[in-house]
Amino acid sequence: MGLSRLAALHGVATSYSPSPDATVSVPDDTVIAVLAALGVDAGTPEDVRRSLVAAESRSRLLPPTVVVWAGEPLPAALASLPSGSTVTVEPEASGPPGRHPAGRPP
User: Fold this and answer.
1) Global model pTM greater than 0.70
2) C-alpha 67: how far from its chain's center?
3) Contact at 8 Å (CB) between 52 and 6?
């Protein structure tokens, strides 16, 4: 599962369909070689785990948790979101959770 996810994050196919009624799985060794050609280390299960963590963290717009205090400047992570982005705000103590325009938490 990890190798398939890692391959998907890098745009590497793990199967193909030579005809409408057939699907062929790409051998793991081939997927590993293609990932290596892209500079992704996937030679061992530990390499796959490490590369998967790195790839998934690069694909996030924000870290899993961002703390915003009322009246304080926005953290750089929020201030640099693309225009029109929305974020889900889940207050710790009170206030309604929900979706709010990026950079404008309740």
Assistant:
1) no
2) 20
3) yes
